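Hi U.,

Before I forget, here's the chain from the pilot set. I'm dumping it here mostly so it's searchable later in email.
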Amino acid sequence: MQCTRLQLPFNYLGIPLGANMRKVSSWKTVLDKVQKRMKTWRCCGLSRAGRLLMIKPVLNSLPLYYLSIFKVPKKVANDIIRMQRKFLWNGQKEGRCLPLVKWEVVMKQKSAEGLGVGNIAVKNAALLFKWWWRNAT
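Structure:
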């Protein structure tokens, strides 16, 4: 059959098989994807509304494939939220910029008078419960 033997961990369909996904180092590829995507937008002169529109559909959807299969460590979820928060308030400027509202308000749904960004940990729990629900019935 001429099959090659691989050492664990290796990637299959973009998922690292044999890796311990409870370690933060296993999530480095996801964090790098988010960071790389934000770096390409930093050169654009986006307003805060434009940055918010880039965070909601793009940055929140990048880690969804991993989030639907593995439980995200708290440090990784906090790192993604920190990157989103820094990108929204600072944009292309370096250093500190004062936020206009609390991040909890930004994460709330629009129906609850928020900006609708969402929480990574809540999305992760919902996606994992979806698998549990499919297998339970």
